[in-house]
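Figure 6 in text form: structure in, sequence out.
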């Protein structure tokens, strides 16, 4: 799935769920990416991957942008990382869950690099981009958790913003909503600071359409 579609959040939920079922002894999420796996010299990468699995024992190992491990040429650090990954998945299958995440098309290319990956990964879940209305629901949730309300005029304004954003590839999904929300809070502060008189409690906790841009 694309960025901001909830992959990391679901990984955390999976860790909690499988810990409650007794499948995982701990249930935390250990995150990694190419920069924390691939070493400077041949041999370092294998050690890094083995250490990562030792840390992830009893937990969920979440490797984001896993396709970045592919170098494009055989025999380089990426091959060492992927080969070690396949071996460690086999060695630690009793008490470790491995989740590999990234863009759909690139992830398929990644899986095709090593037959061992395809045979060891039983489940594939696609995370679709959010619609404009789903993004609005995320915005409402963010505001509600902070004790902030949205005026009636906000809906039409942000739906227009989200509609434009959804036309662009990799616009960020949930992360885009968070950025829009945080910017609106800043704009609200500036708007109130410029107004005369003492604002009411309701005004301080309400975002208006003009706060979103």
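Output sequence:
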């Amino acid at each position: 799935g694309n960025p901001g579609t909830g992959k990391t959040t679901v990984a955390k939920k999976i860790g909690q769920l499988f810990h409650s079922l007794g499948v995982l002894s701990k249930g935390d999420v250990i995150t990694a990416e190419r920069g924390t796996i691939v070493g400077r010299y041949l041999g370092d990468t294998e050690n890094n991957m083995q250490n990562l699995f030792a840390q992830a024992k009893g937990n969920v190992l979440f490797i984001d942008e896993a396709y970045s491990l592919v170098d494009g040429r055989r025999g380089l650090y990426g091959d060492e990382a992927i080969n070690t990954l396949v071996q460690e998945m086999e060695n630690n299958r009793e008490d470790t869950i491995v989740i590999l995440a990234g863009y759909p098309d690139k992830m398929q290319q990644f899986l095709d690099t090593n037959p061992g990956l395809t045979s060891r990964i039983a489940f594939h879940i696609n995370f679709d981009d959010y619609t404009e209305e789903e993004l609005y629901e995320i915005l409402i949730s963010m505001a509600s958790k902070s004790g902030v309300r949205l005026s009636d005029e906000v809906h039409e304004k942000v739906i227009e913003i989200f509609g434009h954003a959804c036309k662009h590839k990799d616009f960020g999904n949930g992360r885009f909503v968070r950025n829009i929300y945080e910017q609106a809070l800043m704009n609200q502060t500036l708007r109130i600071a410029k107004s005369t008189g003492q604002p009411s409690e309701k005004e301080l906790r309400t975002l208006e359409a003009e706060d979103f841009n």
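Caption detail: The longest strand covers residues 29-32.
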